[in-house]
Amino acid sequence: MEGEEMIEVRRLSVNLGDFSLEDIDLSVGDGEYLVIMGPTGAGKTLLLQTILGFIEPEEGKIIVDGRDVTKLPPEMRNLSYVPQEYALFPHMSVFDNIAFGLKVRGKSSSEVRERIGEISEILRISHLLERRPITLSGGERQRVALARALVIEPKAVLMDEPLSAIHRSLREELQAFLKEIHSKLGFTAIHVTHDHLEASYLGDRIALIVGGRVIKVGSLEELRDDPGASEFMGPENILRGRAERRENFTVIRVNGIDLISAYESEGDVLVIVRPEDIFIHPLGELPKTSARNLLEAEVTAVKYRPPVYEVSLEASGVKLRSFLTKQALEELDVREGRRVLISMKASALKILPYMGRF
Fold first, then answer.
1. Measured between alpha carbons, how far is 118 from 151 in angstroms, rounded to an integer?
2. How far does the signal peptide extend, from start to end residue (predicted)?
3. Which fold has domain 237-353?
4. The CATH fold of domain 5-230
5. Pairing with 304, which of 3, 47, 52, 290 sits 20 to 30 Å away (CA)?
6. Which pTM was predicted?
7. Residues 139-155: tens digit of each pLDDT
């Protein structure tokens, strides 16, 4: 985290009859991007709405920048909200949508124009200011909603699944855009999602909430290593490394190991490898494969995840997961403590640029 705590949630409980949040403790540092992740119905949005002041807790406190705001209405908390559907005013231009919060705060016309000019340039939406929301694409609406949230210079921006309405083909592009803008502006953010890949890419830390309880808060690696949290993090292997582009491939250094990817990238990256793209071979036998990544690894665990077996591996400190059928598991004699050879094709190592904190 960058510095002092910007938001603190202390022993928070909310009871809605058929669902409750219980004894929530959570903190967000100044400039931190915290992702709240969990399955549908876990209480993510309820927690966000309680922090914002839309719902009053039964117990506990909410502290924003050192000030107790638990009993204050939403407009007195100096927090911005980006709802799932963005809630842009359809009868207003983009300019007037962004200006709304500034005008409510009594800012002068010249200051409104100046601030909107600055934020529009940063978010690359200056050419959209005279248009109506109905004419915008999903990605453009997302940028306008973010501009409206940021322009009032809040203590923090709280976003409720802001990418869920975006077509999957554009989602990665907008994730990268959010990462870029956060890196540039350094605002404090709480981002709600059910998507573990989105959480892994965007979050400086991830808070996992299940059944109204926060069961783990930590880095991607800490959640992966926690038995109670790892099952919610999805099957994909997600590694952090540094990429260097060569003539027709990319070398990624991960924990002292060089991996080769067919994707182009430079600098800090996340590497995503599906378990089914990691192949296991007997140690001592040269596998018949064109894969460019060959590593010796130790089997650290074998678990049955119907209909396959999940094999946990460690190669020089790099933790990976692979899938095997029951037949393959028996034929290869894969068991805990056994050393094996693993292979991965360069095309299986997907790369995303990473601008967070390593």
1. 9
2. none
3. OB fold (Dihydrolipoamide Acetyltransferase, E2P) (2.40.50)
4. Rossmann fold (3.40.50)
5. 290
6. 0.83
7. 899 999 999 999 999 99
